[in-house]
Design brief:
This protein is an alpha/beta fold and 373 residues long. It contains 15 helices and 11 strands. Helix content is 34%, strand content 14%. The chain starts with a strand and ends with a helix. Pfam families: DNA_methylase (PF00145). This is Cytosine-specific methyltransferase.
């Protein structure tokens, strides 16, 4: 039986693709509001994901959609404390999580997966994650992998049960993220779930796409990706100032032979900026001294450049993995009018697909134990 899923806060479809790779899930509805991400999603999946999950119109539309699994990579936002007397759900009003929780309440999917940044657990001094867990367990009636409940209804958890790092799932990227997986108690029974659920996988042993970052890097990138001498000097001076203060902040050349192996990248970021500066590459110095139209000073003499969008795509599993067909052809691509700035943003805002695939397989494993597949 193929399970029907919906893809909320869809971005460019990384969560969807990770689930599709298992062969056990079929997407029936998507929602995204960023116009550029929508273009990329449509280009690669053939579906128009345009939809605003905060709108009553979209929520009413979902009531007519038959689905089993809800997927969402939602933003981390502070919750109000004023509404607690009306229940924890009310305290989340005005945030994307509230809209997701409302959709769960109205449609009661059998399973959901929520993905977020790792500081979700420290956000607002722990109040955010506590509210989320109260809503999911007590108000929506789901069993959450990694959450325990005592006889008095008190919930406990360890953040290590939810945070998984992309570097342990086949790609050389240090990217810890939170994965929250819940199962509907009314569908499966709380006692059955207590026996069936298992902790999230900590790593993948079945794939290792790259031995380290050097396997992923594509040497000889175009001149536009190399840092201008002036920019490199600015970064070096900035790092030196912080170093004198005892801080470790600054740019990083991630494939510098002087670094301890294995060589891995820092997390790629949707903001682009520091995500690029902390992931610089040592490449050819063939462009040293060359003037490029969009740079105020000549290209640096050390051969230091930004990683390319394609290399970011490899780090996230979009390129050279998730969209490779049976003939070995990579089918992922951006529409022609998507700029490099948008490519960096979209990959930085995406999930690491091999991690998501592993989570999807874990869900399948549990559902098989429950006799639902």
């Amino acid at each position: 039986m193929v399970l029907k899923m919906i893809d909320l806060c869809a971005g460019i479809g990384g969560i969807r693709r990770g689930f599709e790779l298992t062969g056990e899930f079929k997407n029936v509805c998507s929602a995204e509001i960023d116009q550029f991400a929508i273009k990329t999603y449509k280009h690669n999946f053939g579906d128009d994901p345009t939809g605003d999950i905060t709108s009553r119109h979209f929520k009413d539309k979902l009531k007519k959609v038959d689905f089993d699994v809800l997927l969402a990579g939602f933003p981390c936002q502070a919750f109000s404390r004023a509404g607690n007397q009306k229940g924890f759900m009310d305290a989340t009003r005005g945030t994307i999580f509230f809209d997701i929780a409302e959709i769960i309440e109205e449609n009661k999917p059998s399973v959901f997966l929520l993905e977020n940044v790792d500081n979700l657990f420290s956000h607002d001094k722990g109040n955010t994650i506590s509210t989320i867990m109260e809503v999911l367990v007590h108000e929506l009636d789901y069993t959450i992998i990694g959450v325990e409940e005592d006889d008095l209804g008190n919930l406990t958890w360890d953040r290590s049960s939810f945070i998984r790092n992309s570097r342990n799932f086949g790609v050389p990227q240090n990217r810890p993220r939170v994965y929250i997986i819940g199962f509907n108690n009314r569908v499966y029974g709380r006692d059955n779930l207590l026996e069936a659920v298992e902790e999230l996988p900590k790593r993948r042993e079945d794939i290792n796409l790259y031995n380290d970052l050097n396997d992923l890097i594509e040497k000889g990138a175009p001149a536009k990706y190399y840092l201008a001498e002036g920019m490199l000097n600015t970064l070096e001076n900035h790092r030196n100032r912080h170093s004198k203060k005892g801080n470790g902040f600054g740019y990083m050349v991630v494939n510098d032979p002087a670094r301890n192996s294995p060589l891995i990248s820092n997390a790629v970021l949707a903001t682009g900026g520091s995500g690029k500066e902390r992931n610089l590459i040592l490449d050819s110095n063939e462009f040293a001294g060359v003037h490029v139209s969009n740079k105020q000073t000549p290209i640096n003499s050390k051969g230091i450049r930004n990683m390319t969008p394609r290399e970011w795509g490899k780090l996230q599993g979009f390129i050279n993995y998730a969209f490779v067909d049976k003939k070995g052809h990579d089918q992922f691509e951006f529409p022609k009018d998507i700029s490099d700035t948008q490519k960096y943003k979209q990959f930085g805002n995406a999930v690491t697909i091999p991690v998501i695939e592993s989570m999807a397989k874990h869900i399948v494993k549990i559902l098989r134990k429950l006799g639902d597949i």
